[in-house]
Amino acid sequence: MMFDLPDSQTLYAALCARDASYEGRAYVGVSSTGIFCRLSCPARNPKFENCQFFASPGACIEAGFRACKRCKPLKAAAGDDPMVQPLIDALEARPTHRWREDDLVQLGYDPSTVRRAFKRHFGMTFLEMARQRRLREGFTALSAGEPVIAAQIDAGFDSPSAFRAAFARLVGMAPGAFRKDALLLADWIDTPLGAMIAISCQHQLHLLEFADRKALPREMQRLQKAQPGGIGFGRPAPTQQIAAELADYFAGTQARFDTPLALHGTDFERQVWRALLQIPAGETRSYSQIAQELGRPTATRAVARANGSNQIAVVIPCHRVLAADGSLTGYGGGLWRKQRLIEIETSYTERLTA
User: Fold this and answer.
1) Is 71 a catalytic residue?
2) Residue 37: active-site member
3) pLDDT band at 145; cut points 50, 70, 90
4) How many CB atoms neighbour CB 275 within 10 A?
C-alpha cells in the first residue's frame, strides 16, 4: 500500500540505519549507479546527494532505475507470488527483448493473471515494465552518442521508427513528427531526481522537464507551435552545457546556470520567469510577493499560472515559489521534487554561512 513519504533527510537516516520499518514502504534510487534498493540494503551507503526516494518499485522503474541484485527489491515487493520472480528473472536475462503476451503464454502463464499480479505488486504491468527497460536501454545508447539506429538495436526495437514511436508516446507526439533535419533536438539527461528531457537548438535551451511529468505532452505541443522546424534526436551545445551544469548543481559545487535560454510564452509569463531567475538559491518567495515585485499586486493567480507554465525546470526556479503560508504547492514535477530541490539549495546557503 502506498503512503506519504517523509522528507528526504528522514529517509536517508533510515537508509543509513537500515531501518526495517520502511520495508515495502520506501525505496531509494541511487543516481551514481542507476540502481534502486530497499532501505535495508546491506550495500555501502550512497551519498545523500545521489539519493532519490520513492514509494514503490514501479515508481523507481519509471524513473529509470534498475533493481539491486543484492537486496532484490522486486522479489521482496512480490512476496511469495509464484509467478512474479520467474518473470522478473526472465526480464533481467533478456532486457532488450520485445516482450508480448504470446511470450507469457509460451512460458505457461495467463496474461491477464500476470497483468493483475504485476499491477498489484508494482503499480505497472509486466509489459509496461519491459517497455520501460527497453526504452531506457535505448536512451542510454543515445546519451553515449550513438546514432538512433544503434540505440534502437541496443533497446531491442525492430526499427528506428519503433524506437521513435516509443519516445513519441512518452512525450505525446506522433512518431512521424521527428525529423532528421530538425532544428530542435531532444536528449535524455540523468539527474539524482530522475531523468529529464532536454530540447535545444544549436544556440539555446528550449525545454527542460522531468520525463515523468504528466504535462510533458502538452508542453511539447506548445513548443512546436512556438518554434517551427521540427524535433529530432541529438545533443547540441546547449544540451551539453546544461547537462554539465546540472551535474555541478546536484553535486553541490554551484547553483548557477549560464546556458542560454529560449523563453516561449506571453509577455507576462516571460516577466514572471525573469523574476524567478532573480530569486537566489536557498531563498523562496510567495506568489503574492512576485506579483508585488512586478507591480501587479492583484495578479497572484496569474503569477501562479505563469509559474506552472514554466518549461525549463530547475534552471528557471519555479520550485522556489511557495504558498503565502510557506507550504509547498503547485509543482508539476511533484511536490517531493520541490521539497528536495529546496533542501539541496538550503544546503548551499548553510555551507556558505558555516
Assistant:
1) no
2) yes
3) very low
4) 20
Q: Cα(44)–Cα(50) distance, rounded to whole angstroms?
A: 13
- The yes or no reply on domain 267-353 and CATH 1.10.10.10 is yes
Residues 6+ apart with CB under 8 A from 267: none
CATH 3.40.10.10 residue ranges of the chain are 1-78
Residue 199: helix, strand or coil by DSSP?
Answer: strand
Catalytic, out of 37, 68, 71, 201:
37
Backbone angles phi, psi at 42, to 5 degrees: -75, -5
| 197 touches 216 (CB < 8 A) | yes
**Regarding the domain with residue range 1-78, which homologous superfamily does it belong to in the CATH classification?**
DNA Methylphosphotriester Repair Domain (3.40.10.10)
Nearest-angstrom CA–CA distance, 207 and 186? 9
- Exactly one of 41, 60, 201, 318 is catalytic; name it: 318
Residue identified by cell 552545457 is 241
Cβ(62)–Cβ(124) below 8 Å: yes
Per-position DSSP letters for 267-336, written without gaps between them: HHHHHHHHHHHTSPTT--EEHHHHHHHTT-TT-HHHHHHHHHT--BTTTS-GGGEE-TTS-----TT-HH
How does strand 285-286 pair with strand 196-200? unpaired
Q: What is the pLDDT of residues 214-271, one digit of tens each?
A: 788 888 888 877 777 778 778 889 999 999 999 899 888 888 899 999 998 889 999 9
Residue holding cell 512556438?
226
